[in-house]
Amino acid sequence: MGRAGGSLVSQTADALRQSILSGEYKPGDKLPSEAGLTELYKVSRTVVREAVAALRADKLVEARHGAGIFVLTLPIQQPQPFQDVDHDRISSIIELLELRAAVETEAAELAAVRRSPAQEEAIIRCLSAVQVCIEKAEPTAEADFKLHLAIADATNNPRFREFLEVMGQNIIPRAALRSSQSEQTAASYLRQLQNEHDVIVHAISDGDASAAREAMRKHLKGSQQRYRAMLRQG
Fold first, then answer.
1. In degrees, to the nearest 5, what angle opens at C-alpha 153 toward C-alphas 198 and 111?
2. Mean pLDDT by 10 residues, the chain (234 residues)
3. What was the pLDDT predicted at 81?
4. Residue 11 in contact with residue 52, Cβ under 8 Å?
5. Which domains does the chain have, with CATH numbers?
6. Where does the HTH gntR-type domain start and stop, copy by copy (predicted)?
């Protein structure tokens, strides 16, 4: 089938899919016959068959021998990984920090061994960008995330970056900076995080794998301890 035919199949499948998703055809309903669909969408039987096949592949309909095509119960949409993090729940943040500790300590160690001069420069630039945000009293989460991505890149294993990107900027919690805290307390908290960043980056720059690993471990374990203290305070 040529491009036009393929386009007709897609258009017909999309129209049928929308009819199902909108509730025009409900779970258990029988779709019109092949002839009926041909007439309804003004396409050939071949186009209808391929469109229905696409819906069957999507688990939206099923063919019952001798009875016709029936609409299935719509599949439950599962939330994407790490996109349902609740920053109002400190326990949710601690869960992420524990996972990050398992992955990013290894990333820091590998970065110290494998980084290229260009990657080292990128890490240092990202560290400076976080500092600029702190000095200007601007949000630091995005710059912080880019710093961790730069360290992941320096492992020269693309899976580390992929992992962080799947998690998204959710990996940089800022629940500790609640409105109930003073600006001075918030600034002190950020300076402490930046001091920890500085130790990590210097260890990577020095090529000291064990120091880089330990610095990242202390950074993420320290964050866990800070959030656990908040949890105990209620």
1. 55
2. 61 93 92 94 94 92 92 74 68 88 97 98 98 92 95 97 86 58 67 96 98 97 87 74
3. 67
4. no
5. 8-71 (1.10.10.10), 90-232 (1.20.120.530)
6. 6-74
